[in-house]
TrEMBL record:
Residues 12-144 form the N-acetyltransferase domain. InterPro entries: Acetyltransferase_Butenolide, Acyl_CoA_acyltransferase, GNAT_dom. It comes from Mucilaginibacter galii. This is N-acetyltransferase. It comes from the Bacteria. GO terms for molecular function: acyltransferase activity, transferring groups other than amino-acyl groups.
Length: 151
């Protein structure tokens, strides 16, 4: 039985329907538990969701995980804010999430995929991600969130 079949049989679902997203749970994890979005305000999260393809993982209507894809749907996609909540880890949900992202019909045929991670390299390698081959071509402006924005 495939991973997808096993997870579906166990009652897990993945959806890009934004109306299903539990903004409170997603915001809490990103703003207070993640290393990459610490201090993210709820308003910025809501705006980021509005302007991205979002993937939610659910079990019995409870949020289990989340990911956003920022894309032009033609040439480029940036995967970010990927997480599985602690009680649901170790079940293959992150692999299933990445599989669904890579197979999403609006993301077929892209020239470049990008993401950043401090600790999940082995997960992303399974889906073809490698270190940037020419890092000297890439530039960035990085402005961390100010934690004083949070309530």
């Amino acid at each position: 039985m495939s991973l997808t079949d096993q997870l579906l049989k166990a009652g897990y679902t993945i959806s890009t329907d934004k109306s299903l997203l539990d903004i409170e749970a997603i915001h809490h994890y990103l703003a207070y538990e993640s290393y990459w979005a610490a201090g993210l305000s709820k308003e910025k999260l809501q705006r980021s969701i509005e302007n991205s393809i979002c993937f939610g993982i659910y079990h019995e209507n409870n949020t289990c995980g989340f990911a956003r894809v920022i894309t032009d749907k033609a040439t480029f996609a940036y995967i970010c804010d990927v997480f599985i909540l602690e009680p649901y880890r170790g079940k293959g949900l992150s692999k299933w999430l990445m599989q669904n992202i890579k197979e999403h019909p609006e993301l077929n045929g892209l020239r470049r995929w990008s993401l950043a991670t401090a600790d999940a390299h082995n997960l992303y390698k399974q889906f073809g991600f490698v270190p940037i081959s020419k890092p000297d071509l890439w530039m960035e402006i990085f402005t961390p969130y100010v934690k004083s924005e949070l309530p």
